[in-house]
Design goal:
Strand 3 and strand 4 form a beta hairpin. The longest helix has 14 residues. This protein is mainly β. Strands 1-2-3-4-5-6-7-8-9-10-11 form an 11-stranded antiparallel β-sheet, with no helix packed on it.
């Protein structure tokens, strides 16, 4: 059993920056048909040649209002774009070459309380390797104009031939603070568990928690 007491956010951020710099080309097209309805596409390449391994595309449709919104997308992710797993070293089981369909949305219950959620269903390619399902939900409560609390839960199932291969769950408790100029600071505490429910039996259950800080800036 592994217990992760502290995971610095700086190495993860540096890894994300390095990955972003490796992409040679990224094209996006977003069309707005009204104040509420949008259609978007994106295509990214990590090399000069278009291939399943080095490309990623996303086609999405969104409808947003002040109090609620929905977004659906179809995505194809090549192996070179597949995200690395940072929980308990289970990246060897994550789909590396996949396609999926997802839906997400938000609902403002009151001026202080907002509910967000999403679900994804997909498969690795070729399609008889892995199926995966991910769903998540999050509550945001604003204590004041600049401060909010965060409570979330996320579940990921990766299913192999013959039954469930991996289940990963984690809960998030956090605090966010608007710092002005489109920037926000978040302090997050996450508790997670990874278990192998399939016939392979090669991966014991792991539990642990992570404390991290995030700074986001919108340009």
């Amino acid at each position: 059993m592994n217990l992760v007491k502290l995971a610095p956010a700086i190495p993860l951020a540096m890894s994300a920056i390095a990955h972003a710099q490796s992409a040679l080309s990224e094209q996006q097209l977003n069309l707005r048909f009204s104040n509420n309805l949008t259609v978007g596409t994106s295509l990214s390449l990590t090399g000069p040649v278009l291939s399943n391994r080095s490309s990623r595309y996303d086609v999405n449709l969104g409808y947003n209002r002040q109090s609620w919104g929905l977004r659906g997308s179809v995505r194809r992710t090549g192996e070179e774009f597949a995200p690395e797993d940072t929980w308990f070293g289970v990246s060897r089981l994550m789909p590396r070459n996949s396609q999926d369909v997802s839906v997400s949305g938000y609902l403002s219950v009151s001026p202080q309380l907002r509910l967000l959620g999403g679900a994804t269903r997909g498969q690795s390619l070729p399609g008889d390797s892995f199926d995966f399902t991910n769903w998540s939900t999050q509550l945001e409560y604003r204590f004041s104009r600049n401060a909010m609390g965060i409570l979330g839960f996320d579940n990921l199932d990766i299913e192999g031939v013959g039954g469930s291969l991996l289940r990963r769950q984690w809960a998030t408790l956090g605090f966010g603070m608007d710092m002005g100029q489109g920037s926000m600071f978040k302090l997050l505490v996450q508790y997670g568990e990874v278990g192998n429910g399939g016939p392979l039996g090669s991966m014991p259950a792991n539990r642990g928690h992570v404390i991290s800080g995030q700074i986001s800036v919108k340009f």
